[in-house]
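I am still getting used to backbone structure tokens and would like to learn alongside you. Label the sequence line and the structure token line clearly, so we can match residues to local backbone shapes. Would you write everything just below, so we can both look at the same thing?
***
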Amino acid sequence: MNKQEFLGSLEAHLLHLGEKDSRKFAEYYDEMIEDYKEDGYSEQEAVHQVGHPALIAEGIMKEQGIKTVEIPTLGEKITRYSILVLGFPLWGSILASVALLIFSVYIVIWCIPLVTGALAVSGLIGGVWSIIGSPFIFQDGLHVVVTQFGIGIFLLGIGLLSGIITVYLTNIFVQVTVQSSKKFMGIFKKKVVSV
């Protein structure tokens, strides 16, 4: 590659910078090639010493904070879509199994507040029923009424404690479920980068 081809390629790769800046960098590398020629290199050797114009342009673009995006050709798009369609039996089943595994973990986790909630409801209902029903068994003796009333108070306590635990666990599990769902769905979202 001679100097003119190198500089033309470099300016073409630096079009995103604008004509003024791309020309400034082309002049800088023109001087660099001339310096190599003064040191005894031929024009092709001097161009080779400077480097490949595409790599140089990429480095300049990164330094300037400009990101480049390659747009796939029609052939690349067709190849990607055909691989997606033909590979669906494999990646589709893997994706379904991962989704079902995550769903089953959610089910197992949510069984804990479900059990404590059922214990709270049954404790409250059993405690109220035991306290209300204790005067009706007075004919069996005072000791039976006191025992029945004590069991009712105990069941109310268990129900209230289970209710508090259920509310606490539900708040924690809602947060964990929402955060993990966002992270899982974030895998499939496209990231948009401004260019």
